[in-house]
Design a protein that fits this description.
5-stranded antiparallel sheet; 4 domains; 8 strands
Length: 490
């Protein structure tokens, strides 16, 4: 009786079990592996035998659950479970395997309920029973006298778990191996977290999530989405839970999974100290950190503008009263706040610049890799042999020749010179011996150059920097023509 009184104090549903049978209720009934019945028959085993004797019918269905075999009757099961009704209509032997996350112990309690045995609901099995009830579709039927297992577990959860911190912690720990069905079918984890947040605050809720590291990223994504949908205002609790999970599973989660989980956190709904924590949190993805930095800078800017406006308003308000010590202290405190906010804003700007440099460096590295790949492909198609190239200063090159007419010095100066780069030669004619030779040569060259210049005037304008023609004639004693270019002389 002391054991029953202890269960009643914990808020469990009343049961018809005797004290000596409480621990044997989870034993699978009529398993073919048992060579002989146990000394004290389990409630399910006894009820199945009693039902067979009363109806005069042997067991007609076989259900396999996680290595255990249950020989049961079809008639007690199908009215309670729509899922079993569909499955047993086509076959007399079925297997409850994943994705049905139901253990043999849980199915024993479900079968006991189908045979009319009252089930003991505790904080340790309410999550498993609720999940099994949802998967087996054990809702109450309209007009039926029996209460569905979904209604039984929901009533216990609302009465006991939602108002007791210890029960909520126990139920939440029992939900980890039942994910994702425990959340997708009954919203058990998110409801436990919501109940804990109403009873404790901040780190108190996070301290109850010691088993969250066993959850895979896909299941935690389901939990984060459920918490996001149930959050009406602040996202501080969601941020704390996500940060705890990323801390516990830092080496087992990819950046893409981190980004998908963090997308449920709205930085505008974070408190200032958690927003600053997010800016400095190395576990978060880079995109989320940049977003948090922008929001933090925006909030800082608004605070600075608001403080400046209040200061300006107080400055223009006429006051006949003397300034008190309290007003001076408040003024100094406001100035310190503005200075701190300005420093925080500057720190945020520096961090943003650092992140931008990192992004630019990564982008340049990627572009360099792409360019090298393209260049390596082009070099195979556009490579010319060095034997076919005309080098500078070779015969036939741009700078392979020059033509000069060198003037003489004084009255007797004069001369003519033509020298290629590779082979030089000079023709010199003394003006004292042949005085008219220079003038005739200059006249002929002028006429030739005038015709060439008129025919190629368009091209000569574009090459004004490379072509220079100088003509001089002093008293008929001599002249000079100098043409130097990097293109072949035409």
């Amino acid at each position: 009786m002391e054991a029953r009184r202890g269960w009643k104090n914990m808020g469990v549903v009343e049961t018809i079990y005797e004290d000596e049978n409480e621990h044997s209720s989870t034993t699978p009934s009529l398993s073919p592996t048992l060579s002989s019945p146990p000394a004290t028959p389990a409630p399910l085993h006894s009820r199945v035998e009693a039902w067979s004797r009363a109806m005069g019918r042997e067991t007609d269905v076989v259900i396999h659950v996680r290595g255990s075999c249950f020989h049961l009757h079809k008639d007690p099961l199908t009215p309670r479970s729509d899922y079993l009704k569909r499955q047993l209509t086509e076959a007399s032997e079925i297997t409850l395997s994943p994705p049905l996350n139901i253990t043999a112990e849980t199915f024993t309690l479900v079968a006991e309920l189908c045979y009319g045995i009252d089930v003991v609901v505790t904080p340790f099995n309410v999550a498993a029973l609720r999940t099994a009830a949802e998967l087996l579709e054990m809702a109450a039927k309209a007009g039926a006298d029996e209460v569905g297992l979904i209604q039984v577990t929901e009533a216990y959860f609302s009465r006991a778990v939602a108002a007791n911190r210890d029960y909520a912690s126990i139920v939440m720990r029992s939900c980890w191996p039942l994910l994702p069905e425990a959340e997708t079918k009954g919203s058990l984890v998110s409801r436990c977290i919501e109940s804990l947040s109403l009873m404790v605050h901040g780190d108190g809720v996070v301290s109850c999530l010691d088993g969250v590291k066993t959850v895979c990223p896909e299941d935690f994504h389901v939990i984060a989405e459920a918490i996001y949908r149930r959050s009406s205002g602040s996202h501080d609790l969601l941020y704390r839970i996500v940060d705890l999970y990323l801390k516990e599973c830092s080496g087992e989660i990819t950046e893409d999974q981190k980004t998908r989980i963090c997308n449920f956190i709205d930085c505008t709904n974070l408190s200032p100290h958690l927003l600053m924590h997010a800016v400095q949190n190395p576990r978060l993805p880079l995109r989320f950190i940049v977003q948090a930095m922008f929001i933090e800078q925006l909030n800082t800017r608004r605070a600075v503008i608001s403080a400046a406006d209040r200061r300006q308003t107080r400055k223009h308000q006429p006051s006949n009263e003397a300034v008190t010590l309290g007003a001076m202290l408040q003024h100094d405190a406001a100035r310190r706040d503005v200075a701190q906010l300005t420093a925080a804003m500057e720190d945020t700007r520096v961090r943003m610049q650092s992140l931008e440099k990192q992004l630019n460096g990564m982008r340049e590295h990627l572009n360099g890799c792409e360019n090298r790949a393209l260049d390596s492909g082009r070099s195979a198609s556009f490579r010319f042999s060095s034997e076919n190239k005309v080098e500078r200063d070779q015969i036939g090159s741009v700078s392979s020749a020059s033509f000069r007419v060198i003037p003489g010095m004084g009255e007797r100066g004069g001369g003519f010179s033509c020298s290629p780069t590779d082979e030089s030669f000079e023709w010199n004619v003394r003006p004292a011996e042949k005085s008219s030779f220079g003038r005739r040569l200059m006249s002929g060259l002028k006429r030739a150059l005038t015709v060439s210049k008129n025919s190629q005037s368009d091209r000569a304008r574009g090459k004004g920097d490379g072509n220079r023609v100088k003509q001089t004639n002093e008293d008929g004693h001599g002249g000079s023509l100098e043409k130097k270019e990097d293109q072949p002389f035409k």
